[in-house]
Task: inverse folding
């Protein structure tokens, strides 16, 4: 476990530690503070994703860029509207990546150790 | 000292309790997790806040409330206790940042033992004084590695430090402790093999 700590130093430190703290009503106090029900965070995320996809779809349907991009794609992949759509997709991917990295750094969000 | 088998059994029990909380919203299962781990988490925080028992318990309560809310983020790849230590350490750092942002920050006199230690034996006081003379990262590393019994990898996870940094803090802290304790005759030089 602590291969790089000398036994005598480790023993001195452990001796001064004192071990776990007795409960003395702590758990009861915490249990009284617990919210009645755990907050389920899955459905707001799903609703948000569905709303975003729907809003994007509706706005793109009204704009001619999709049809134009499709026609241009058939004509050749370097068309301007195709490149604009690809740039938009790339931007969204970068935003999603930044969000995912921020989540990773959140308190205890990801455990990276093997047991 | 617990053996590896005991630790893996305890880890499996924790995993089962976490699953019960997540799947059935089982408050009793969470209460069991709380009772199993509150002692060490509070001990960790008491050391970090240097004996301010009320602050340590406030932070411990915050830690477990956060664990309740964020339990679905526990992937089970680390021990549940390690995950809790990490949350507790984050709560401690956040509290320290708020205190620094406040009007006044009272520096801790590293050479005066705290009141809560007055009743300890002289040797423990000397060890405590020696530990408090180390840098904050060295103290944090030695607390988690030597006193809470974490591996260097687990300590790196809890403290958010690279593994190499944890190891070098452990080495430096230990070397400084050795010098201080030898100077104070807490342990004779020969006991350190010199």
Result:
């Amino acid at each position: 476990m602590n291969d790089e700590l000398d036994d005598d130093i480790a023993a001195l430190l452990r001796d001064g530690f004192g071990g776990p703290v007795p409960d003395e009503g702590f758990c009861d106090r915490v249990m009284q503070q617990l919210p009645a029900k755990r907050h389920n965070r899955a459905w707001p995320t799903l609703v948000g994703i569905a709303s975003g996809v729907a809003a994007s779809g509706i706005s793109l349907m009204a704009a001619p860029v999709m049809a134009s991009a499709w026609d241009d794609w058939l004509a050749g992949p370097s068309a301007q509207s195709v490149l604009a759509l690809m740039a938009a997709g790339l931007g969204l991917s970068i935003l999603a990546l930044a969000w995912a990295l921020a989540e990773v750094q959140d308190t205890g969000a990801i455990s990276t150790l093997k047991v | 000292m617990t053996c590896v088998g005991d630790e893996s059994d305890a880890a499996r029990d924790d995993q089962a309790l976490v699953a019960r909380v997540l799947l059935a919203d089982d408050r009793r299962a969470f209460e069991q997790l709380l009772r199993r781990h509150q002692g060490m988490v509070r001990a960790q925080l008491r050391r970090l806040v240097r004996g301010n028992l009320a602050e340590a318990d406030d932070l411990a309560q915050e830690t477990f409330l956060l664990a309740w809310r964020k339990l679905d983020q526990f992937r089970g790849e680390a021990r549940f206790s390690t995950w809790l230590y990490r949350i507790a350490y984050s709560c401690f750092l956040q509290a320290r940042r708020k205190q620094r942002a406040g009007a006044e920050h009272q520096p801790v006199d590293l050479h005066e033992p705290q009141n809560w230690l007055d009743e300890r034996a002289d040797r423990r006081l000397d060890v405590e004084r020696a530990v408090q003379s180390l840098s904050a990262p060295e103290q944090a590393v030695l607390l988690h590695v030597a006193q809470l019994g974490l591996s260097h990898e687990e300590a790196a996870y809890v403290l958010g430090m690279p593994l190499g940094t944890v190891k070098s803090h452990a080495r430096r802290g230990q070397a400084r402790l050795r010098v201080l304790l030898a100077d104070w005759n807490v342990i004779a030089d020969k006991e350190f093999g010199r």
About this structure: Residues 8-35+59-105 of chain A form one domain. The two ends of chain A are 13 Å apart (CA to CA).
